[in-house]
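User: Second chain of the day. Same drill as before.
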Amino acid sequence: MDLVWNGGENRRARRLPSWGRSTEIIRVTAFHETCNETGGHGVTLHLAPDVIADASADPRGFLSHVRRRLEGSFTRTFGRSVGFWLVVETTPGGRPHLHGGVAVTDNELPQLEAALRHAAGTWGKRKGSEYQVLIRAEPDPSWWPGYATKRLGRTAKIIPGPLVTATNCIRSRQKSFMIPGGRHCNGTAGRC
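Assistant: Same format as last time:
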């Protein structure tokens, strides 16, 4: 059965699993909905080769390295922490890139792009640099989480460690979208 967050009047009640038993797609959907509460934006981030090499060599893990780079870049750019979630994905050739969501307003888009470019590293070529950072305004919650997680199985064979992360502010707020103990939900976030 498909998970529908914004169910219409003809939608049946759904039984959601507890957080500990949920799949990555359900967790990412909850992270995405939490980001969208504050006007979140979807992002795709292609990393520079030196950032990929440093992240791959980091003993704390690829995603941990990238997350710390993003947190530092956001703090420098915005002067505060910024909520976000990320999923690592690899291309058919094995090159890692990221999909995710960032909780910023439309007024902060220029700063968001600058912070993402800084965290992604210096793009080695002029050609294609416009694709290093892609920002989508509030992407469809029924599509974006599925797109972001579409190749988790293949990516797990190439990149060890966790492939999905979210900042603490996103994690602490996302549980309003999960129903404790798997109770029935009427399809509206946080109301049962």
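The CA atoms of residues 131 and 176 lie 34 Å apart.

User: Great, on to the next one.
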